[in-house]
Amino acid sequence: MSTVVLVGAQWGDEGKGKVTDFLAEKADIVVRFQGGNNAGHTVVVDDEEFKLHLIPSGILYKEKLCIIGNGVVVDPAVLQKELQSLKDRGIPVAKLLIDYRAHVIMPYHRLLDEAEEEQKGKAKIGTTKRGIGPAYSDKSSRVGMRVVDLLDDEDFAAKLVYNMDTKNKLFNKYYNKPSLKYEEVYNDYQNYAQLLRECAADCSEVINDAIEKGSNILFEGAQGTLLDLDFGTYPYVTSSHPIAAGACLGAGVGPTSIDKVIGVAKAYTTRVGEGPFPTELHDELGEKIRRQGHEFGTTTGRPRRCGWFDAVIGRYSARINGLNYLAITKLDVLSGLPEIKICTGYKLDGKVTTSFPASLKTLARCEPVYETLPGWQEDISGAQSIADLPENAQRYLQRISQLVGVPLAMVSVGPKRSQTIVIENIF
Ligand code: GDP
Ligand code: IMO
Ligand code: MG
């Protein structure tokens, strides 16, 4: 039996969906523990592509139990749509549980997300506008709506009156926006309550019981380490904890119950939204990687910013998450480049540092120090083992692992399940 936490080691979109789906074959339970439908996890099964935003990627195996933990913020409208779209494609969705304590995204959260971004103007975060930040703000401010509150009509009505009153004042008086109508929101959410009632549970109890029985459990992170509220490039972050510690908090398991942590990283780096990105490529090469890697957001369709692999971030991620293993994805995208660079440190005030700075001003002054490795020209998308890879690709992987200080467990050379090289069995 094993409990494995899978996290994004960069700025999200590392291919967590693909790796989760691959590992889920041997898992009994797959758990989402943070974030919401800001996530976009793409899984390719045979030739079919699935884009999951809220439901754990394990749903594509009919026998796995999937759990949305207490740390997730749930938009019930999105849940309903995602469930329906899976059903329409012949995927059974009966084995899904949602924690009573998970917070619910309300229409005013989505509107606030938009209004706050508008208000910030040039300083906007570039959020997904799904209401994630405002929903977590309400949770911290102790005025949030939980699944369990929605199931109690009296509680729900009282909380909704309070929230709509304060939010509508904000919309009218501060943001110059029209009010939301209480009746409409109330009726919609009464309907969603029926849906939630069918899958609401005390998921921490379910997960801990399963751990005691020796089940294999996979915790599927969303977003990435550099988007973490505490350890990311604040304020250009999301409002949850995508790091490994978030799994304990967002699923109700103790740290002593976690066996392994696997960090998923692309063979290069991407970022969607605003904020610093030291190894970003602003030239034709960046465009080429975007084209070859189809680097457009799964959730918002925005073009992703592309750049070289940053080993400073890799090491930082290894430390913050306590990574045991790395899964490197999208190695195939780099095929055909004459040479490939890895950032090994940052030049700051004439000295080279390998620390990732807290201050964005300092980070902006950091100049990446690159090591240049020879590329490979071969198509590697059919490689089944490390030995199948060209020598230069092997050398590149070894160097990444060495610089980050974490052994490789998997290498992905394409979006399909079959395009995965296993180095270490995780379950
Ligand atoms: P996530 O948010 O971390 O799950 O990542 P996304 O799904 O947003 O983005 C990763 C994209 O890369 C998806 O379209 C995947 O199908 C695709 N992908 C994953 N692994 C590989 C790989 O090894 N090679 C290629 N070419 N595509 C991959
Ligand atoms: P997955 O799980 C990449 C980014 C947004 C924005 C910032 C805050 O697919 O890797 P938010 O809507 O969360 O308040 O936006 O975080 N962001 C992501 N970037 N992948 C994601 O998820 C992301 N989820 C949020 O672009 O910069
Ligand atoms: Mg994504």
Strand and helix map with partners:
Blueprint: E1 3-8, H1 16-24, E2 29-32, E3 41-45, E4 48-52, E5 65-68, E6 73-74, H2 76-88, E7 96-99, E8 103-104, H3 107-120, H4 132-140, H5 147-150, H6 153-174, H7 182-199, E9 200-201, H8 203-213, E10 217-220, H9 245-251, E11 260-266, E12 269-271, H10 284-292, E13 305-307, E14 309-310, H11 311-321, E15 325-329, E16 339-348, E17 351-353, H12 360-365, E18 367-374, H13 391-404, E19 408-412, E20 420-422
Parallel strand pairs: 1-10, 1-11, 2-5, 2-10, 5-7, 6-8, 7-9, 11-15, 14-16, 15-19
Antiparallel strand pairs: 3-4, 12-13, 16-17, 16-18, 19-20
Helix pairs in contact: 3-4
Bound molecules: guanosine-5'-diphosphate, 6-O-phosphoryl inosine monophosphate and magnesium ion (MG).
Guanosine-5'-diphosphate binds next to helix 1 and strand 3.
